[in-house]
Amino acid sequence: MCRWLAYSGSPIMLEDIVYKPDHSLIDQSLHSKLGIETTNGDGFGIGWYGHHDTPAIFKEIGPAWNNRNLRELTSHLRSRMFFAHIRASTGSAVQQTNCHPFRHGRWLWMHNGMIAGFHQIRRELALAVSPGLFSCIEGSTDSELMFFLALSLGLEEDPPGAVARMVGLVEETGQRNGVENPMQMTVAVCNGETLWAFRYSTEGRSRSLFHSADIEGLRALYPGNALVRTASDDARLIVSEPLGDVPEVWIEVPEASYAMVHRSRNEIRPFSPAAVATRS
Fold first, then answer.
1. Are 98 and 92 in contact (CB under 8 A)?
2. CATH number of the domain enclosing 132
């Protein structure tokens, strides 16, 4: 499937996270330890917030490990909140519009996992997207459709509630059409101020997800680490798999839960699907 990371905190160079750690996202693109596949070479993308309310994105269909433009960009870009994603397709085409992260207005979204039986229930799910949003869908992935379903179900007003309703809709639709265990996901979504990351699957065996320990504790453990020393107190990383082998740095996000990061607040809360009201 895919590997991803999300950062929130003081502005840092993207290469400090994307390239420099021992088990960086670039290393994971070839040597993933916890993913379904060890290689994630079906495209990549980064999304970051700079001087504007809306984020910028850069996507390519080739593998991340040998992309000179990605290395060049990350060595010059500094951001307080950014996403990075490497893709292993679950069946949809390898094309730029299918690469993550996805953007709508000030929102970014990325996903690891799949909707089981997607081709069987895709039309029914697509019809649940608000008419005003439907034309914004550019690609053919289940991941992007999940994003626009969540937007249709209130993401901008209540992100956790909207994601719960999106999952509830996917599960109800899948199960009604005979699909066993319809949802498998880790999802990150942000609006430039707050970051949410969800870990959930219908079968209760979700893909891996970790968040970094608080910076104050890491400073005590690793006083000589330059990145740890200069990061702000509210700096947090959420990752598909740890960027190194030091266990104190990485805390697993529990099954059926979500993390919320907003400046100095870092909370883990339970997550469960929610029913969607039937249209009259």
1. yes
2. 3.60.20.10
